[in-house]
Design a protein that fits this description.
The complex is a heterodimer of chains A (283) and B (219). Chain A has helices spanning 2-33, 36-43, 68-80, 91-99, 114-119, 160-170, 184-193, 203-212, 241-256, 259-268, and strands at residues 45-50, 59-61, 64-66, 83-88, 105-111, 120-122, 127-128, 131-136, 152-156, 177-181, 198-202, 217-220, 229-235. Chain A has 283 residues and is of the alpha/beta class. In chain A, helix 2 (36-43) crosses helix 9 and helix 3 (68-80) packs across helix 9 (241-256). Chain A is globular and about 55 Å long. Helices cover 80% and strands 0% of the residues of chain B. Chain B has eight helices and no strands. With 219 residues, chain B is mainly α.
């Protein structure tokens, strides 16, 4: 009798343990199978990290978010059937936040570079991001990009634009002094105040700025950087692939039906040809 | 040159953001006061463990920059499975940080209570708990009121850092507007004036409390 009881107790314990293992396996299985796109759709919300200081993509107008990102993501939200929630952070915090899982993807956009492609999954490009020089209106000492040799040039920290400027500086006879700012707005302010004579940033951004402040700033044509593109960013994690694929499908659809071109015209004043996918970055 | 219209246009938005600044900083000070009281009690306790915990707590939160603490709580804790929303990370970190300072402020207050007063209270037969609640805590708070008000104004200013974890407050909105309008001067001057007013009100409230609880009237 005692023997029997003890045996049944052992069996019971074993069964319980087996059940526990099975349950935990099932749970982890579910967690793995539940990919990001399914999660986003179940929640009905796509959370996007960005910085509202990157006109014309993201900026504040009358206290509210404005710009091209909001309009592109509105289309993405419509196609995926989800609400879009933006989270505004300083740019150096945005990519760490993506990796910490604070949001599903990043708007920005960011220049698609080799180094970043190794770590992140980029969306289909939405704009040309080739770097050019912004100068003060009427500054005759800078008429071509190489004229920044030996002068003080500003750009933002931790950006692809900085990397391109450093590369370009090496090709000049006297390298310029590069002043790194926390964000581009400070570099524009210092350009206005005369603390730097030029700012290096992607063409869409400075073209927009020069359009907004035509009596203060002027773009130096042509761009000096290697041809690069702007894309949105997701993680390379296996569970994020479905979401990034879905976003790409929407963006490519927008390229083909002209919606992206009309947004580019609205925000950059000109249409920009972009490939469906950047498989190899030039920089 | 100086654009008053921009100030008038941006003021309502900046005031709205400053409400968040006030909510985040004051709620952190309130929570931090509770943490500080506990840590102060631990630091003054007879238990060696309690004193050790308090000493470690204070040295960590006073020794590490608040900005780094915010970044750790938001970006590193998720790696060990603690994923809190922006607002919780912001208030929690501010509260933990100010708690360390308040613990030291209160400790100073307790140490400033004349020993004879406590002895006298014991002589007239008050219990240890009564001495604590009727004599020591009221005196310590009165002694330290100016420092506590000081700490509160520091936290209002420190709250300008919490935008790194994705929380909108006065400084962040001012930056966003300044960037979008390319007119930083007007916006930052306005934001500075709003901080000045908030801290002015806190200082006045502190003065009022000081006069209300003056040691003479407590006799």
């Amino acid at each position: 009798m005692t023997h029997l009881t003890r045996r049944s107790a052992v069996t019971k314990a074993l069964r319980l343990a087996a059940l526990g293992v099975a349950a935990s396996m099932a749970l982890t299985g579910v967690a793995r199978a539940e990919d990001l796109l399914a999660k986003v759709k179940a929640k009905g919300e796509l959370t996007v990290g960005t910085e509202l200081q990157f006109a014309p993509f993201d900026f504040v107008e009358d206290g509210k978010q404005s710009g091209m990102n909001k309009e592109i993501f509105a289309e993405i939200g419509k196609e995926l059937g989800v609400k879009i929630t933006f989270l505004d952070l300083p740019w150096p915090s945005v990519l760490p936040g993506l990796e910490a899982g604070k949001f599903d993807m990043v708007a920005g956009p960011a220049t698609i570079t080799k180094a970043r492609m190794e770590r992140y999954r980029f969306s289909s490009p939405i704009a040309d991001a080739t770097v050019a020089i912004l100068k003060k209106k009427g500054d005759a000492s800078i008429t071509k990009p190489a004229d920044i040799a030996g002068k003080k040039v500003g750009t933002a920290k931790a950006t692809a634009q900085l990397a391109q400027l450093q590369e370009f500086a090496k090709t000049l006879p006297t390298p310029p002094t590069i002043q790194e700012y926390v964000d581009f707005s400070q570099s524009y302010a210092d350009l206005g105040a005369g603390r730097v004579v030029a700012v290096a940033n992607s063409l869409p951004n400075i073209a927009f700025l020069a359009k907004q402040k035509p009596d203060v700033f002027e773009v130096v044509e042509p761009p000096f950087g290697k041809p690069v593109y702007f894309g949105y960013i997701g993680t390379k994690a296996a569970d994020a692939k479905s979401l990034m694929d879905a976003v790409d499908a929407v963006l490519i659809k927008m390229k083909h039906d002209g919606r992206l071109a009309s947004l580019q015209k609205k925000w950059f004043g000109t249409e920009m040809a972009t490939p469906d996918q950047v498989t190899e970055a030039s920089f | 040159m100086f654009d008053f219209n921009l100030i008038i246009k941006s003021l309502p938005m900046l005031l709205q953001a400053s409400v968040w600044t006030v909510i985040y900083s004051l709620s952190s000070v309130a929570i931090g006061f509770c943490i500080g009281t506990l840590m102060c009690a631990a630091g003054l306790s007879a238990s060696r463990l309690g004193r050790g915990v308090a000493a470690f707590y204070v040295s960590f939160f006073r020794g590490v920059p608040l900005l780094v603490q915010l970044l750790i709580s938001y970006y590193c804790l998720p790696l060990i499975g603690v994923n809190v929303p922006s607002s919780v990370a912001a208030v929690g970190t501010l509260a933990l940080c100010t708690g360390a300072y308040i613990a030291e402020i209160l400790r100073g207050g307790f140490l400033g209570i004349p020993h004879g007063l406590v002895e006298a209270a014991r002589m007239v037969g008050l219990s240890r708990a009564q001495i604590l609640t009727r004599i020591e805590v009221p005196l310590a708070v009165r002694f330290t009121l100016p420092s506590l008000v000081n700490e509160t104004t520091m936290m209002v200013k420190a709250s300008s850092l919490i935008s790194v974890v994705g929380v909108l407050e006065l400084t962040r909105l001012a930056q966003n507007i300044a960037t979008s309008t390319f007119q930083p001067l007007e916006i930052y001057l306005t934001a500075g004036a709003i901080y000045f007013v908030i801290n002015g009100v806190i200082t006045l409230a502190g003065r009022f409390a000081e006069s209300r609880f003056r040691l003479e009237t407590a006799r």
